[in-house]
Amino acid sequence: MKILVLNGPNLNLLGTREPEIYGFETLADIEAEMNGVASQLGADVEIEFRQSNSEADLITWAGASRGVFDGIIINPAALTHTSLGLSDALKAVADAVPAVEVHLSNTHKREAIRHTSLTASACIGQIMGFQGFGYTLALRALVKRLKG
Ligand code: DQA
Questions:
Q1: One digit per residue, pLDDT tens: the chain, 148 residues?
Q2: 103, 108, 110, 127: residue to mutate for ligand 1 pocket, most atoms within 8 A of CB
Q3: Do 117 and 80 meet the contact criterion of CB atoms below 8 Å apart?
Q4: How far is the CA of 68 from the centre of ligand 1 (A)?
Q5: Ligand 1 centre and the CA of 106: distance in Å?
Q6: Residue 28: CA atoms inside 13 Å, Cβ hemisphere, count?
Q7: Sign of the alpha-carbon dihedral angle for 44, 33, 126, 83
Q8: Does the 2-147 domain belong in CATH 3.40.50.9100?
Q9: What atom of ligand 1 comes closest to residue 102's alpha carbon?
Q10: What ranges do the domains of the chain cover?
Q11: pTM here?
């Protein structure tokens, strides 16, 4: 079972980026935790972890996931609130590659512009507010859904 983990703009800066909101973990720390949980969940569970500051990369990666990946975990970062294109790409593959949306912060406690997610309606569920720990929660939830 192959899970694609996508991270949007500025998440490469985790660790030093507004740590009071996003925590002190780096994206590499989160990737390592996910790999640890993936191996607990089964020898067949594999993750591929990617980050880009480019909307085009994320749209292309999500759209190309059919037939290659079994599921997606995505933190679209600021694109959550702006990208109909990313939402459309996730919807285009949702029948074969279900997605879970993750946010480090609880976006509903923040500025009004962050209260809307264009991508959430393309996903089976959303986990937010638990900083980096949310990624492993999303992995457990997605693998449970995929294994039935
Ligand atoms: C974020 C929340 C977004 O509003 C913000 O633009 C991010 C990170 C989060 O993980 O809390 O870059 O997706």
A1: 999 999 999 999 999 999 999 999 999 999 999 999 999 999 999 999 999 999 999 999 999 999 999 999 999 999 999 999 999 999 999 999 999 999 999 999 999 999 999 999 999 999 999 999 999 999 999 999 999 8
A2: 103
A3: yes
A4: 27
A5: 9
A6: 3
A7: negative
A8: yes
A9: 10
A10: 2-147
A11: 0.98
